[in-house]
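thread: overnight batch results

M.L. [08:02]
morning all. the overnight job finished for the chain we discussed friday. pasting input first so we're all looking at the same thing
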Amino acid sequence: MKNITILLFFLLLSHFQVTAQILDPVEWSTSVEKISDTEYKLITTATIEEGWHLYSQNVPEGGPIPTTFTYNNKKNTFKLINSTEEDVGHTVNDPVFEMIIKFFEGEAIFQQQVEVTEKLTTINATVEFMVCDDSRCLPPTEIDLVFNLSSEISNSDTKSNQDVNVDDTKVNMLLYGMSVKQIQQLTNSCDNESVSNQSSAKEGGNSLWGIFGLGFLGGLLALLTPCVFPMIPLTVSFFTKKGDQNNKSGISKALLYGFFIFAVYILLSVPFHLLDSVNPDILNEISTNVWLNVIFFIIFIFFAFSFFGYYELTLPSSWTNKTTRGESTGGVLGIFFMALTLAIVSFSCTGPILGSLLAGSLTADGGAWQLTAGMAGFGVSLGLPFALFAMFPNLLNALPKSGGWLNTTKVVLGFLELALAFKFLSNADLVKHWGILKIEPFLIIWIVIFGGLALYLFGKIKFPHDSPIKKLSFVRISGAILVAAFTIYLISGFRYNEDTNTFKSLTLLSGLAPPVGYSFIYPNDCPNNLDCFKDLKEGLAYAEKVNKPIMIDFTGLACVNCRKMEEHVWPLSKIDNYLRNDYVLISLYVDDKKELPENEKIEVERINGGTRTLENYGHKWAHFQTQFFQTNSQPYYVLLSPDGKQILNQPVGYTPDENDYAKFLECGIQSFKANIKAK
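M.L. [08:03]
and the structure it wrote out:
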């Protein structure tokens, strides 16, 4: 565990280095040695910059990430003979990881013998690796390798995170029927364009503050749990008693303690900034990964039953013991370890809330900064009481006594975790098109969950650690009534909307529930029963045929703000008229996991360097958005001429204001008409 901690420390440290410059210490090249007509030796050479270490394929558990080769053999066209061989390298007792580790310096050669069972010209592979120097480690990186069997020497140089020789124009014409050079921005003078842009930018800032607020609320909920609440008077009393001799010193230490609680949770978000800087769309990949969402579903079910009192969720006791020993160091460092101990000890209550915050931030559009904002809010609300009560210790007398209400808070959180679990299962269902958790079963499950919560608050359901209820408090009755009202609100989601031929969308559930068109009873492929295309080429062909401008809607099946726009802005009469009559709507889902046809599974360049292989439609549309419009956020709306070659006005993102969005659409129409007259 100590080794993992050290590794995380290096990753955190490397973040501050990478943001200044992209470190790229390894260059990979491939070659092929022909042994016979059917046997070849695939040779991979890693050229390593001075001062950096590349690790062996075999690394003890708890150490750095090993170098791993994966050979693409889906069609079983060749056989691997034995395992991949590697150079002798250097084997040392590494002082950082405290274990015997083999690594390479300068150059490393890896060889894999294969037997070809069918006629092949190339073999594709992927290498995952990690490199460290004396002060930092870079995050694990994947590089695609190509071995050319038609020549004895294949120099497919693939420098990690650098430009690779990929013909962008040829690739883009194949995938999208256009190239970046063909698209141009029209100059227009719409008076309302700047308003629309400002709305989008303003919303981005508001979104971060909104996530901060949710994190702050999560921290307040954590304070009201049995793991944290009793710690407030104990910890504050510790500092104020020490301050009998020097009251100012006691208060300053308590303030520092509160600050360190905040800092601990901020540090948890730093690795995600590192990931985001290496690969800008990695957080979107994480949030829409099918199996990760399924894992989130299982974990949240596990969290829920922990809150219900069926078992206790704790971190390893060795972590607590080590941080407790650190408290004896005294001074500022000792106070930091006290804050870290609180975070570890309270994990059984804070862990599920932090898990919700983590998962929710990753599914939001804003990447790592969303998570940092949420963690900041959580840390502030958790650390603030310790600081305030230290400054005003008399307020401790006003705190309610610990009792059964703390367990009630845990159980309520358990029901919320249970509801969120099905949100993540819904994400997986949407992106894989399983069709098992459409709007009807989702609403029914949530009705059962929140109906159960209402019954619990009314005292009709009990859990293992619940105290006997002699009399329901005013707060509990009020909460039960509110939850019961919300349950009735969920039931109203089954009302029919004649305008859209779907169920009526519920404002409070936008982005949480599946789209109302994702239904067993009233299925609808396009939002609000609009006509739309989900393929770029088909949409372009139709737009040219009818001579109408295009609105490209970069969206996501699991995108919260996308659902808010589709369900609450698009149906408004002013907006609906534009979308239904004046534009050809092309919706491109960047998280669609449906596999691409084999001829489109090709290697493309990333916008920040390096390459990737497109595997599904989500990859294809995300690549289109980043290459052509230099952004990867959703929703994102681009207005184009019928041939797709001209951008009519400045694209916008999330624009919830009806007037601003209408002005954006009107500006596109004006620009389109002006361009026709000019021709």
